[in-house]
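Give me structure tokens for this 78-residue protein.
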Amino acid sequence: MDRRNKTRRPYGLSALSSNVDYWLARAEEARTMADSMMHVETKETLLSIAEGYDRLAGNAEKRRPASARRGRARQSSN
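Here you go.
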């Protein structure tokens, strides 16, 4: 039995890890939740989670081909 197959990443993880829009949406969702929190520690935790999602989005952006990054910059300037 080939045990290497058991250590593979779950299906779709590599696609998800390179999806900038997905991570930016999760960051925005965490910030929206934080805005509604009255408990300071909970708010800070959610904001920290949002920052982590922003970092994931930045990492995903770096993995995009240069042509895709330039196209995204043009779209956001409109």
